């Protein structure tokens, strides 16, 4: 192989390297531009694009269902598995604000009960063991006799006592301090009863004002 042939081979390889370098430079520049465009887009742009794509597909699906004479919502539900439907329903119920504030004392007690039961982690093995030992006494009725042999474990009693102590410690912070009125009627026996009466008066005072006035005047029927 002569020197001129070697030189042509090296020059050919050099041209190939230059071409590859230019292609890489153009590709990097294009990717840099795309990355800059994505950085300037809103943070939820991809989610919005997926939402728009889903709406377009849903519109086409509904048009096809109308042409075929089918209910679109029912047909869509048939395509969703039970696990996915349960997750979607749980997510929807979680987003829904079920706590609408104070309505009645029964509702407040029920919400408190649900909150406390969510904190309980039952021991299923111990539960099954008690069912086998007690039999029908596991689910007593009003006429059931013979529950004296059943005793709660010490850790359960300790947990109940701890919850009661925690509730008692939190209770003073529920109500803000109000100014003392020396001319107000004393219709309470302690501070807790006073707050309870004030709560009743805020919610039901306008309905019982006339009855209270009649009792004070002695004209109640």
TrEMBL record:
Main subcellular location: nucleus
Cellular component GO terms, alphabetical: catalytic step 2 spliceosome; post-mRNA release spliceosomal complex; Prp19 complex
InterPro entries attached to this UniProt entry: mRNA_splic_SYF2 (IPR013260)
GO biological process per UniProt: mRNA splicing, via spliceosome
Subunit structure: May be part of a spliceosome complex.
Function noted in UniProt: Involved in pre-mRNA splicing.
Family per record: Belongs to the SYF2 family.
PANTHER family: GCIP-INTERACTING PROTEIN P29 (PTHR13264), PRE-MRNA-SPLICING FACTOR SYF2 (PTHR13264:SF5)
Protein's name according to its UniProt entry: Pre-mRNA-splicing factor SYF2
